């Protein structure tokens, strides 16, 4: 059987997997990292977004084997248990930027990638990242407020990029 | 501790969800779980000549294959919700179709295998022999007389809903002016981002069936399932985990899978999980909205509306599981905020070969408001006046409350508007819009070849459907208050808002209150989250239970503090003797003091509080109360929208959207604003982006988010959001529901704005949604 050897949230992972296993199913059902959600499996909604090699990727459009050798980060990595929320998470909480919370992990990962880019946080880049996500509950208004707050903060404030 | 209700308090549930620790249905992994996959009809209307599942039974990893025949008596028609005399020929779906399918997506076979991949492999081996029949897709098909959704219903009519107040026919005959419109609202759906899902586990050792269901009403599912599967309630637990959005789609009960999955778990004595994928959601989850109206309005020279009458067709899909709820709500909500003496509606509920219809956020109201407001727009045009003037002239004045509409709601209660400030709300909306300034801008930009338009709409929302909800409030010895309710949250924030209510009554911090949705406790006989009822019904039950618990807490504290309960007050999670700040006891100490047993780790003996002097019985620090109401309460609002339409491309841009909203007393403005804005953007989607389409043979052609477009952040317009608070006199907290409000008038307001923008072309807007291509086509039709 093909296998995948990489790190997920900094932890080494080595497993045999079926070639057809989606990365989203691998993370959720084999590694029990259920914070990554699946809203469409068509690559449209963005709920399944994780960082692969530090770049946002739709985990429902990628096979687990394709992550071989490529570090993966999921929403569970944004704040250690018992530690404060990351900047993006905290801004979401302050501003009620989530309702059912199903779309949220994907959006957090896309915005975290933007925050990790060089230089000051660009609102344009953040909004562009949000464009790739569907949220059926919030109407995006409070997510935009959260983005505004993040962009207004100096970068080192509030627990780092993530 | 007063100060929680009314506070913009960030939600207590968010920390968990933000860390990826939400527990949605598909996140629950029970060891040894099997996975179900449903084989669905590929035809909209067909006889089934044969079902061959032998290949699937032999496929790798398959543990069970179920057809309708295998289910025996269990495969009877699923329950009909809300029986009503107007239902002439109600039909509900069987868990698995046997000899006939009536929509693409109808369940025929369920396969249970070791994993989802294997179950789907096996599905490819199922062979179904269809004999296609002529399909009923459009309303015209239903009336043709040569095609039938149910062979014994020759006219495809499930029900006729109608009511009259006054004498509209006579008034229309003799009125100075009348006009008529044909209006359409097309099919759409709620599309929660999390699909449906069920997980069931029969544990033969505990003799218990545990069901997790991504539903808005676990309590009703539990009560119903107990009967359907003949499992006593004490052996059956049903709970909704975190639910990734509902919007009414998940208040449908029962979907076939909600019966099939628990049944399979019982048969196999192993956990069985089914999670819907997005394609399945588009073909097998319930939908809504489709209606066609022939409406007439009678009015005088001053724009005073004398009578309204509508005859409409309502598309209920292949079955009518929710009875007449949606078309009845359309009829009863259509006049809305307007005082119209003579009114009638008559709605024909027609079967079609499409997924069944049950309420989607708004639940028939958006259609009614669209009709009413289109009529007002037409009246204004005929009289050569501003539509807002016609609206204002017809609003129900504040002096008229309670306002008896004379109409009966589908639960047989009378629609009486409890309170409202319609004129004030409308004027506030007008002042935000500033019509004169807009007209100036409109004129100026017309000269540049640009097309701006202004639209408005008002609505009422009957909320807080009875008959009751309960709450069990308990003080535990950790010093925390636990509230058990029967309404789950699909993102509405109950864990926070109910905590705010209880905290104010008890005198503690909201963070000290924990809200659980009961699976089997004393409140497990309530109803569910729908019809914007949770805050009204459960909110008031929470307040009642908290008051009762507070009385018990004070009684126990009076023993500990050796004073009379009347001298006590509560604050910050402590009970004080009034005027003696040092004489106090914490909630945790009261709870331990009420229990004569010393547990390991208790650091100091607490004095034993007996129920009354001389009695040995422990004091119960738990109270269960119910809030009962037979009357809906009516929220309201006024929307104004300014758009620009590009006649070249048909593209509509919303320049500004104004919402003035009144849901009575607000528990948490942050949450209420979130509900209103979320609903509003969903409404914008419904007006400009979302339309479920079907080919002539009933094949659905919108089966992914690639062609059913939900709004994205680019569809969020500049917003003005304003509130009025007209408390309801009919419940102690003064609350009116708000879950659906935001979506209700949006299509109507945008329709008027588009028509206004395109007035040089004289394009009448008579249907929703409108895509750019529809607008282009309409313009083309008017150009010589
Ligand atoms: S689940 Fe991957 S994009 Fe929707
Ligand atoms: S919060 Fe529910 S989908 Fe975004």
From TrEMBL, chain A:
Record key words, sorted: 2Fe-2S, Iron, Iron-sulfur, Metal-binding, Oxidoreductase
Protein's pathway: Alkaloid degradation; nicotine degradation
Source domain of life: Bacteria
Key word Thylakoid present: no
Ranges where the 2Fe-2S ferredoxin-type domain occurs: 2-78
PROSITE patterns, sorted: 2FE2S_FER_1 (PS00197), 2FE2S_FER_2 (PS51085)
Gene Ontology MF terms: 2 iron, 2 sulfur cluster binding; metal ion binding; oxidoreductase activity
Any single Pfam family the record assigns to this protein: Fer2
Keyword tRNA processing on entry: no
Record protein name field: (2Fe-2S)-binding protein
Species the sequence originates in: Acrocarpospora macrocephala
From TrEMBL, chain B:
Pfam families: Ald_Xan_dh_C, MoCoBD_1, MoCoBD_2
InterPro entries: Ald_Oxase/Xan_DH_a/b, Ald_Oxase/Xan_DH_a/b_sf, Ald_Oxase/xanthine_DH-like, AldOxase/xan_DH_MoCoBD1, AldOxase/xan_DH_MoCoBD2, AldOxase/xan_DH_Mopterin-bd_sf
Superkingdom of source: Bacteria
Domain Aldehyde oxidase/xanthine dehydrogenase a/b hammerhead: 19-134
UniProt cross-references to Gene3D superfamilies, sorted A to Z: Aldehyde oxidase/xanthine dehydrogenase, a/b hammerhead, Aldehyde oxidase/xanthine dehydrogenase, molybdopterin binding domain
Keyword Ribosomal protein: no
One GO MF term attached to the UniProt entry: oxidoreductase activity
Keywords on record: Molybdenum, Oxidoreductase
Name of the protein: Dehydrogenase
Species of the source: Acrocarpospora macrocephala
